[in-house]
Amino acid sequence: MAEYFTSSKKTLFDYWQDKSRSLRFLDGGTREEAYSYFCLNCHPKFPWLDIGSGTGYVIKKCLGNILGQLIIAVDISFEMLIRYQVPEVNKIIASGEFLPLRKKSIAFTSSFFCLSDYPRLSLFSNSIQRILIDVGEVILFDYAVGDGYWELRKAHHDPQKLIGNINLRTAEDINKEFSDLSSLQEKYITSTVSTKNLMRKFDFLPETLDRKFLFIHLKRR
To answer: CA angle at residue 201 from 192 to 79, to 5 degrees?
Structure first.
């Protein structure tokens, strides 16, 4: 399947309706360190909404702390959600840009490696801020400016035709988009990974890469 994404949401939607791709997201892969940081350092409130939840690997990893709580998983991929690894979680096929939830109904929202798929975040930020309660919190985890893999992909391929997490941002970029929220914590997490473990391999990649992730914790003002 050709991997192209030129800001077309239909193209992005179609890309994720792929069974073989969903099977590759049953574990943490090269993002394991980022997921581990979240599970060790965050204390979700409930109801918890996870946007771009995939097959539920993050929820499964944190399960010991959240069993029996109300959690809602949102994803645009039916193939991901039918392989969701935590049966207790409520699942919705929807986009984070248009969340089918009532105003001020969610206490905690998270999103992992999803927002960098999109060149503009205004619809996401407005949707999240709408459903968040007055003391609600948001955790965003994504690839950051300087991530070795995606920076090399953009350098060797036409960035206007690449699909994936090419819209790399800084903490300052995120804060501007979520103007109704205050930043509680910002952290860049780096790790060196073997390119043998990457889902997509290219001749121009070195044997190891430095990955760079952004963790940001926001709260309604």
So the answer is: 100
The string of pLDDT tens digits covering residues 143-170 is 999 999 999 988 888 766 777 788 999 9
Q: Which two tokens stand for residue 51?
A: 């946007």
Determine contact, residues 73/98, Cβ cutoff 8 Å. Answer: no
What's 147-195 look like in SS3?
CHHHHHHHHHCCCCCCCCCCCCECHHHHHHHCCCEEEEEEEEEEEEEEH
Contacts of 47 (CB under 8 A, 6+ apart): 69, 70, 71, 72, 105, 106, 107, 108
| Tokens describing residue 124 | 């996401």
* Calpha distance 192→154 (Å, rounded): 19
CA distance 86 to 144: 28
| Long-range contacts formed by 191-196: CB under 8 A, 24+ apart | 191/30, 191/33, 191/34, 193/30
Residues 70-123 pLDDT 10s: 999 999 999 999 999 999 999 999 999 999 999 999 999 999 999 998 888 999
Q: Please say whether the beta carbons of 78 and 51 come within 8 A.
A: no
Contact 184, 171 (CB under 8 A): no
> Has residue 185 got a pLDDT over 60?
yes
What's the pTM value of the predicted model, to 2 decimals? Answer: 0.91
CA–CA separation, 166 and 117 (whole Å): 6
